[in-house]
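Reader question, answered in our methods column.
A reader sent in the components of a multi-part assembly and asked whether the whole thing could be modeled at once rather than chain by chain. We filled in our standard form and ran it. Here is what they sent:
COMPLEX SIZE: two components
ENTRIES:
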Amino acid sequence: MKAMKYMKYTEILSLNRELETVLKGKKFLIALLSNIVVNQLKEVLELELRQQGINAEVIVGEYDNIVQDSSRLSEVNAVLIFWEAPNWVEGLNARIMSMNVDEISALKERFESEIDLVSKNLQHTPLVLFNRFSSLLFSTDVLRDGPLSLLCRQLNIVLEKSVSRNQLVVDINAILAKVGLGAAVDFRQFHSSKALYTINYFKVYASAVAPALRAAAGRSKKVLVLDCDNTLWSGVLGEDSESGIQMDDSSLKGKIFREVQQILHGFRQEGILLALCSKNNPADVDHVLNSHPDMIIRDDDLVAKKVNWQDKATNLRELATELNLGLDSFVFVDDSSFELGLIEKELPMVKCAQVPKNLSEYPALLSELKQDFFTLSPTAEDGRKTELYLQEQQRKKQAAQSDSIDEYLASLELRLTILWDEDIPISRAAQMTQKTNQFNFTTRRYTEADIQRMLEDKDYTSSVFSLADRYGDYGVTGLIIIKTDRTSPSKALIDSFLMSCRVIGRNVEYAFFDQIVLSLQQKNITELRAEYHATPKNSQVAQLYDNYGFKRIATIEGRREYLISLADYKPRSIEYISINLKGN
Amino acid sequence: MNEIKNKVLDVMSAVFDMDIKDIPDNAAPEVVENWESLSHMNLVLALEEEFQLRFSDEEMMDLLNLPTIISIISGILEARHE
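And here is the structure of the entire assembly that came back:
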């Protein structure tokens, strides 16, 4: 697909209309609030996301109604705010020069309270993007801040303080720098129509904020798959031999690949999964990974390796299966146009990038790619991700050696720890609702503020579990949110129930549910309702409530409602999972 | 001249989301439903991109119907060749 930066505005409009009719599935709604005219961003941003398979729709708010709009928005997935300080008051950019200190501080107070109000109004929206205030468009101050620069600086401090964890502050000056001020701004329509920005600017802006929106849509990238020769190191291992490849400081190319490996190692620390896909002899590559003195990336930094002579599309498909992740969460980097062309053709959902011909541009390319892996709620779990996946592979090996699945599961020595309500790690719980697609009955996405609110609300009972076995700790990997009926407290509804894909297949869902039912019974709940909302990804749980013994009571358009009288629930009592109850 | 007209019509068709055959020769905001102030802005930007030119403030104010748009663009392009 043609990258948007090379498309004319008319092409953007036409393709965007076309994609609108093609894309199916739930709409991802973005409200665009502004005090200047930014309507052209609508199509540009929609196309940016639609090209990535997200059925996005941008709703443009009323002109200069940010505060009012923010109080009546609901049901949107994200809000984007273009609050142009110089236009906060008609002509402020010029008028501020002749204002006295009291006038400016009165203005500042008003702005501060408005910022605070908008931030509060939007604290339950899954994602809010505030543009940082900037005076760059209107001021040329370099040696000393003028009043407008000063005001923006002070307001930015207020903004940073006001935002809650679902709200991000966009570094708009960095975007302006990328585009260049001259190419970003067009004053010809400012006085007549209050429009300021060029299409060019909107293109760069849209691609800069897309990673956050993609993350909110549960579509961020997770795996970075790398070729080896001339991608991880300089040279061709099969021809130059181990002593001939370079990733050290003794040559220019080596220096660049050393930096590349350092960057990649940083990615791994942040939770990006690294994998290899290379046409080489596996033993040769293993030897380099384990023994080459200059390598920074080592075997245990890699979540998986496909080093063989089969085609790379097959390899990527196998990697996806092995890791239990969708191919649309893959990014693939190679130096060969042939290999990249194959993947683009066979697996268009994989994002491809080529090692630049000018190697000096390679580190910058990787930093750019990193944006695709953006996550909304970074947690302590992220840094352990590679480790967790590697443990999983050991388990799979063990599984292959065991005769029966039960025998295998018993050999794992599974230990389930269950935490209730105030013991729940909030950011991890929110992150799971945002990222889990497969084992997820209702796919409701919650922010940390939402989780916090539910934990404080007496009508809600929530629980998470963490799982460990003889190979290691999977961390917090399951969540259930139950809402009791205020009017008849013996009835409750499962609002959300989800489990990370890394613990699927161990019957934990049965052991956990036994405990949930037990606890609800202790709370004198006798009747439990549940829902299954079908999505393209969650078919694996379509039957689970039936397996638990629930009765289907209604089915409307892919939404199924279930009911069970808890007296009828039959616990599975899985003996090979030991249970550790905390709290409650 | 015809080549310029055809390009302008292409742009209008994309911006106003309508078939070229439905755009009359005297197209103007009064007669084309989708030609309002916001889409006018889009039209100007798209024309500049298509013809690789930049209208002056005064030209911008005059771009109010199809015949004038064609004559302003032709004027700019001719001046370029002189």
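What stands out: The mean pLDDT of chain B is 92. The helical segments of chain B are 2-16, 37-51, 57-62, 66-81.
Send us your own complexes using the same form.
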